[in-house]
């Protein structure tokens, strides 16, 4: 133990200076509940007019099952994108596309995005899956969803979800509000 260079006068002066001081309470830990609303399993009835956006199925790149996805339009704040990647933005809804054909998935995704934009949702989650993991073929829905989301004008950014939310089989999507 290191010997102190303080004199008795120094210690008395210190004790006098802190007389009446109280110990601070330990900070309360805050936990955020980021559970999304239930996954939508049925077709959504839109209260407002749909955006009427047509998706192209032409793939510009091929994504594999374990590839992490990331897309962002220019001008977004780095802090916002970091929060999206870390799953820190509250998700208003989620859509599960498992088991759907490409045509069914395209229609469900279009309705879902229209609904979310019309209701001013900021962040949603889409579960596209990883395809057949034993197959050497790239996952069809993952590739198409990656392609379609980049085409949809109200999608500001998207990225692969955290492991707790589906990992590389799901996406967090950041939307802009309807103008």
Structural class by secondary-structure content? alpha/beta
Give the DSSP E fraction (strand runs of 2 or more residues).
5-15%
CATH architecture: 2-Layer Sandwich
Rg estimate, integer Å: 25 Å
Average pLDDT, to the nearest integer? 82
**Major sheet characteristics:** 6 strands, mixed
End-to-end distance: 68 Å
Please tell me what the overall shape is.
elongated
Provide the spatial order of strands within the biggest beta sheet: 1-3-4-6-5-2
The CATH class turns out to be Alpha Beta
The number of distinct β-strands equals 6
CATH topological fold name: Ribosomal Protein S8, Chain: A, domain 1
Number of H- or I-type helical stretches: 4
pLDDT < 50 runs, ≥5 residues = none
Percent in helix: 25-40%
Number of domains: 1
Please provide the ordered H/E string of secondary-structure elements. HEEHEHEHEE
Folded structure, characterized:
With 179 residues, the chain is of the alpha/beta class. The protein has a single domain (37-47, 56-175), classed as Ribosomal Protein S8, Chain: A, domain 1 (2-Layer Sandwich). The chain has four helices and six strands, in the order αββαβαβαββ. The protein has helices spanning 8-17, 78-85, 102-118, 140-151; strands at 39-40, 70-72, 93-96, 123-127, 155-160, 170-175. The chain has a six-stranded mixed beta sheet with strand order 1-3-4-6-5-2, sandwiched between helices. Helix 3 runs parallel beside helix 4 (140-151). The model has no long low-confidence stretch (mean pLDDT 82).
């Amino acid at each position: 133990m290191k010997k102190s260079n303080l004199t008795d006068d120094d210690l008395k002066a210190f004790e006098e200076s802190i007389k009446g001081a109280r110990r601070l309470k330990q900070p309360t830990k805050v936990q955020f509940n980021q559970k999304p609303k239930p996954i939508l399993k049925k077709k959504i009835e839109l209260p407002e007019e749909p955006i009427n956006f047509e998706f192209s199925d032409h793939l510009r790149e091929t994504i594999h099952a374990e590839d992490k996805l990331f897309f962002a339009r220019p001008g977004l704040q780095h802090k916002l994108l970091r929060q999206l990647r870390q799953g820190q933005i509250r998700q208003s809804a989620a859509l599960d596309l498992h088991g759907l054909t490409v045509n069914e998935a395209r229609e469900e995704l279009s309705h879902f995005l229209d609904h979310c934009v019309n209701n001013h949702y900021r962040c949603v989650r889409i579960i596209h899956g990883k395809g057949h993991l034993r197959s050497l073929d790239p996952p069809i829905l993952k590739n198409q969803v990656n392609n379609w989301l980049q085409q949809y004008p109200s999608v500001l950014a998207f990225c692969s979800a955290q492991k707790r939310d589906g990992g590389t089989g799901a996406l967090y999507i950041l939307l802009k509000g309807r103008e």
